[in-house]
Write a structure and sequence with these properties.
By secondary structure, the chain is of the alpha/beta class. The protein has a single domain, classed as 3-Layer(aba) Sandwich (Uracil-DNA Glycosylase, subunit E). Strand 3 and strand 4 form a beta hairpin. It is globular, with a radius of gyration of 18 Å. The structure holds uracil and iron/sulfur cluster. The site of uracil has 13 residues, from helix 4.
Length: 234
């Protein structure tokens, strides 16, 4: 793959995919700085900055969301707003340390439109052309981190990575076969829990999300203890 943007320092506009901008054989940090100048779709124009994935390149778990929200756009970090708080709570309840997780999104710029009064920025779902344009960044993150467990949160991430036929409602919380990682799962997006109609349904949706993450934690522990046993015989 060529590294046009990286070599010349000039990022061509009107690209249809970020593929040509991806530097090869680089660290996550270098990938992140290359993505900061991405103009492969139009979303950069109305966003503040690229919000790249965050976490250790050695993370065993990768969580993939949809796109940054308002707070993420302002801070430049994924899952730091209200959905991020839900995610943090769910990870804690499942006994997973967020510092051991690599967190990213399918689309790296915030897509929004102003509300009627022009005061708030309302999240809009990314279009499929934007998802496609941005996909090479996510592919590169997966290649570099090589997570043992990959979790797609919400339909946008699940369908982008597992195919358009993936149904979060029907298939959530189950391990699915995929070449992306040894263990791959789709589950709900934490922001769907924020939208619950009352506190009762919010609680049960949260419990179900934590149950899915519990399965992730259990799988990791089983794998860890298996590896410990293997190393005893090494
Ligand atoms: N929703 C997402 O999908 N990603 C974020 O980073 C924040 C909210
Ligand atoms: Fe590039 Fe993705 Fe941003 Fe579009 S959303 S400009 S492809 S980083």
């Amino acid at each position: 793959m060529k590294s046009r943007g990286g070599r010349s320092g000039r990022i061509p506009e009107n690209e249809t995919s970020a593929a040509d901008l991806i530097p090869t054989n680089v660290s996550l940090a270098a990938l992140c700085s290359a993505a900061a100048g991405c103009r492969a779709c139009d979303l950069w124009k109305s966003a503040t900055q690229t919000v790249f994935g965050e976490g250790s390149p050695k993370s065993a778990i990768m969580l993939v969301g949809e796109q940054p929200g308002d707070k993420e756009d302002q801070t430049g970090r994924p899952f730091v707003g209200p959905a991020g708080k839900i995610l943090d709570d769910a990870l804690r309840l499942a006994g997973i340390d967020r510092n051991q997780v690599y967190v990213t999104n399918v689309v790296k710029h915030f897509r929004w439109s102003p509300d009627e009064r022009g005061k708030r920025r309302i999240h809009k779902r990314p279009r499929s052309c934007e998802i496609q344009a941005c996909h090479p960044w996510l592919d590169a993150e997966i290649r570099l981190v090589q997570p043992r467990i990959l979790v797609c949160m919400g339909a946008t991430a699940a369908q982008a990575l597992l195919g358009n036929n993936f149904s979060v409602t029907r298939q959530r919380g189950r391990w699915v076969r995929s070449s992306l990682a040894p263990k791959v799962m789709g589950t709900v997006h934490p922001s769907s829990i924020l939208r619950a109609r009352d506190s009762e349904s919010r609680d049960s949706q949260m419990q179900a999300f934590v149950r899915d993450l519990d399965a992730v934690a259990r799988t990791l522990k089983v794998k860890d203890s298996f590896r410990d046993e293997l190393s005893l015989f090494a």
